[in-house]
Amino acid sequence: MTPVDDDAPPASAAESLELIRREQAAAARTMALNPLLYYLPWGGAWLIGFGLLFLRYGPDGRVFVDLPAWLPLASLFVLMALAMASTVLVSVVRGRGVEGRSSWQGTAFGFAWFLAFAGVGTTTNRFAQLLPDAERSLLWACASVGLVGAMYMAGSAIWISRDMFVFGAWLTVINIAGVLAGPGWHSLLVSVGGGGGLCLLGILLQLRAPRGGPA
């Protein structure tokens, strides 16, 4: 009986190309990030958190729903913490076995988010003490949302993603509009335009993903 060599090379160039194609497709499926796992947690956090802020602290101090004063901000922070945990988990799983340029890009971009928010948070806290409560909240929100928009546009150059740039630019526009409109309105715009936009972006990216891609 003639032994079978499972490691024998392909018999032809066509078989070699097909083997390469299958291996590339398998690697892409392994490393691909399901957009829903990233965008929906953050979109939901903004949609609910800023939505509650609008309902409790509306324009000109109007209260649409008499929620406990602490609830909107606490909900936003808890939901964002859960979204952050989800992002870290997905990134760690996706990054297993990845080395070289892609690994450095992801690590550097992650630290850029952390350091940028540390810098903006420190600066904002310094000057927010000089403002009335409503304006203080607006300053924190617009500075944070503005930074997110800028990071998305910067990330688009790293990951070569037009979608990231479009969303970053959209977020920057609604953030500016919210600042001009004033407290209350800013929360509504970020809730619907930012949170809803993140959810929509995740869904669109998932629908556009090639068959056999992210699952």
Protein model, in words:
It is a single chain. The chain has 215 residues and is an all-alpha fold. The chain has 7 helices and no strands. It has helices at 13-31, 35-56, 71-95, 101-128, 133-159, 162-181, 185-208. α5 runs antiparallel to α6 (162-181).
Low-confidence stretches: 24-31
**Succession of helices and strands:** HHHHHHH
Shape: globular
Distance between the termini: 43 Å
The percentage helix is over 70%
Query: What amount of the residues lies in strands?
Result: under 5%
Helix/strand structural class: mainly alpha
Cα-based radius of gyration, to the nearest Å? 22 Å
Largest sheet: none
Number of strands: 0
Tally of individual helices: 7
* Rounded mean pLDDT score: 84
What attributes characterize this protein structure?
215 residues
Brief account:
The protein is 77% helix and 0% strand. With 215 residues, it is mainly alpha-helical.
Write the layout of secondary structure elements.
Layout: H1 13-31, H2 35-56, H3 71-95, H4 101-128, H5 133-159, H6 162-181, H7 185-208
Helix pairs in contact: 2-3, 2-7, 4-5, 5-6, 6-7
